[in-house]
Amino acid sequence: MAINLEKIKSRLNSFSNNGKSNLIWKPAPGKQVIRIVPYKHNTENPFIELKFHYGLNGKTYLSPDSFNRPDPIVEFSNKLKRSGDKEEWKFGRKIEPKMRTFAPVIVRGQESEGVKFWGFGKNVYQEILAIIADPDFGDITDLVKGRDVVVEFKTAVETGKQYPETGIRVKPNVSPAVDPNNKDLVSMISNQPNLLEVFPELSYDELKAVMEAWLASNDTENSGNEESVPTVDEVETAAVEVAKNPTNKSPSATVAKSNVEDVTKAFDNLFNS
């Protein structure tokens, strides 16, 4: 039986299309060693701070507030927090975008895979910044005189808590990030991707429509989980669905037209008051 070349090509393309997803690194349970490297697209700061809206119709969206651009959900949140009503203030806090910080890293033992981006929360971010600010450590991202970092990840089951925990420990000895004679690895660091081109961003009107559909769905209990790191697939899938449904009767939020209109009216009233 002859090989089906079309299926072979299709499978090959599927690997190529997953390139973006492979850029995000998540620690597995246990200890792993990584090296934070300089970010090519901002050599003064290797840390990329992004904000995400979690749990809107079960999906994750990149917030334009990450880039100091208007975000209708942030505006709505601010309106609620200024309303003077305690419950509205709580809901306004709940729907605020949550920040995740990303850093370009090389995973020890997987150097041949090139630079990936590790996403982490506020506590880990503060700990890393404190280490770099400590003169005993200094710039741990330096390609020649930097230091590797041991990342220990514990699942929620292991910690007995609601969320998993991530701990870090900087190795005491300085070391080069890669062998300078390994031209392939040096090239990978020099040609690392731009993280800001990885996560798609919705327009103001598209994000407003997502918010309206989510409010109308009465499924507002599951938003704001800032412990999860957004994957490229999650954000891309959410953006693609909005693109396919520009009027955004969200596929995961089947609601009556009258309900959508009522929520939209209330939403607009808050914006225009």
Layout: helices, strands, pairs:
Blueprint (H helix, E strand, L loop, with lengths): L4 H13 L6 E2 L4 E7 L11 E9 L2 E4 L9 H10 L4 H9 L3 E10 L8 E5 L1 H12 L15 E6 L1 H4 L5 E6 L12 H8 L13 H13 L15 H13 L12 H16 L1
Parallel strand pairs: 1-6
Antiparallel strand pairs: 2-5, 2-7, 3-4, 3-5, 5-6, 7-8
Helix pairs in contact: 2-3, 7-9
Descriptive overview:
With 273 residues, the protein is an alpha+beta fold. The protein has a single domain, classed as Replication Fork Single-Stranded DNA Binding Protein (Alpha-Beta Complex), CATH 3.90.198.10. It is 36% helix and 18% strand. The protein is built from nine helices and eight strands. The chain has helices at 5-17, 72-81, 86-94, 122-133, 156-159, 183-190, 204-216, 232-244, 257-272, and strands spanning 24-25, 30-36, 48-56, 59-62, 98-107, 116-120, 149-154, 165-170. Strands 1, 2, 3, 4, 5, 6, 7 and 8 form an eight-stranded mixed β-sheet that branches. A hairpin with an 8-residue loop joins strand 5 and strand 6 (116-120). The protein is globular and about 60 Å long. 27% of the residues are buried.
